[in-house]
Design brief:
This protein is of the alpha/beta class. It has two domains: 8-30 and 166-315, Trna Endonuclease, Chain: A, domain 1 (3-Layer(aba) Sandwich); 34-163, no CATH class. It has helices spanning 11-51, 60-65, 70-74, 83-90, 94-100, 111-128, 145-162, 164-186, 253-259, 261-274, 290-298, and strands at residues 190-191, 207-218, 221-232, 243-250, 280-286, 302-305. Helix 1 runs antiparallel to helix 7 (145-162), helix 1 (11-51) crosses helix 8 (164-186) and helix 4 packs across helix 6. It is elongated. The relative contact order is 0.13.
């Protein structure tokens, strides 16, 4: 039985209620999420300043020992350097930059190539450091405590400004998953993550898992498909495919229509492996307009609105 996809006469009212819910949450909690990220970013920038002695010793050795400081260094230049701009200016390996921003050096890259690329990276960043933020560079003297703190907060603001949308999106997703978990526990479900290496079909009846892995097919190749929540109803036998839910939130109408094909692709891959009866249900909060909803409905995808979470019961939980 369909939940919302076959009720277009209700969509307008639900869209308005969904937007209102997101905006209320944003006004109350998004600033805190941003502040928390800013505090963490400031700590990271102070760490980079300490390691490089106030940016006076940006060397291949330092970068090799502490690759995690690269994002802070990119934000310390004038203008701040995007990853691709740094790669273009320095001619270094894209994979090296990607690995460094994950806090590591690529293990298969030759020692000489690493040395050459790190030297080029250090040269470009040192040349482009923002002297207005780091006034001590002119005299080649380590910064005083107050100078270091002030510079750290400025660079942290740059870092958070570049990733503010993901910060908000991740905070909202965590909130959605908490609400789903509370709803399921009220109905007697227990959280039991599928054991590592096990499929979601092995979940016990009356349990649910968060950020579980199902399996799909892309052509002839098996692919792992992450799902936000997998629920094995109490009435289903062990070995049946659980209910699969994808939490989605959006702070504007534009981005959702750019990304609306993602769920359809995921559902096709799941059906290629498990059969045509597989369902993927969306859990929506925010700016999802009738164009988005119509597209998902045409693809056979239904949804539950967060502002009416009891609709989830219609899934058979």
């Amino acid at each position: 039985m369909s939940i919302n996809c076959d009720k277009p006469h209700l969509w307008k009212r639900d869209i308005e209620a969904s937007v209102d819910l997101f905006n209320r949450w944003f006004m109350r909690f998004a600033p805190k999420a941003y502040r928390d990220a800013r505090v963490q970013a400031t700590t990271g920038v102070k760490h980079a300043l300490q390691i490089t002695k106030g940016l006076l010793t940006i060397t291949p050795k330092v970068l090799r020992q502490h690759p995690e400081i690269l994002p802070a260094l990119r934000a310390a230049t004038c203008p701040p350097l995007a990853r691709d701009r740094l790669i273009g200016l320095s001619g270094i390996s894209k994979n090296l930059v990607k690995c460094m921003e994950q806090g590591r050096i690529p293990p298969r890259m030759s020692a000489q190539d690493i040395e050459d690329d790190l030297r080029s990276t250090a040269r470009i960043i040192s040349r482009m450091l923002d002297s207005d933020i780091f006034p001590w560079l002119e005299h080649r003297r380590p910064p005083r405590g107050e100078q270091q703190y002030r510079a750290s907060t400025v660079v942290a603001d740059r870092l958070c400004g570049a990733v503010s949308d993901p910060i908000i999106r991740n905070a909202q997703e965590r909130r959605q998953l908490v609400n789903i978990e509370k709803h399921l526990k009220k109905r007697g479900y227990k959280r039991r993550q599928p054991p590592p290496g096990r499929t979601v079909e092995e979940m016990l009846p009356g349990t649910f898992g968060v950020r579980a892995i199902a399996h799909g097919k892309a052509g002839t190749r098996m692919v792992s498909i992450p799902v936000d929540v997998a629920i094995q109803p109490k009435s289903r036998a062990r070995g049946a495919l659980p209910i699969l839910i994808e939490a989605k939130s959006a702070g504007d109408f534009t981005n959702v229509n750019k990304r609306r094909k993602e769920e359809a692709t995921k559902l096709r891959q799941l059906r290629a492996n498990y059969g045509p009866d597989v369902q993927l249900t969306l859990f929506l909060c925010g700016y999802f307009d009738s164009g988005y909803l119509g597209y998902e409905a045409a693809e056979g995808i239904d949804w539950v609105w967060e502002h009416r979470i009891t609709d989830m019961d219609a899934l058979g939980i």
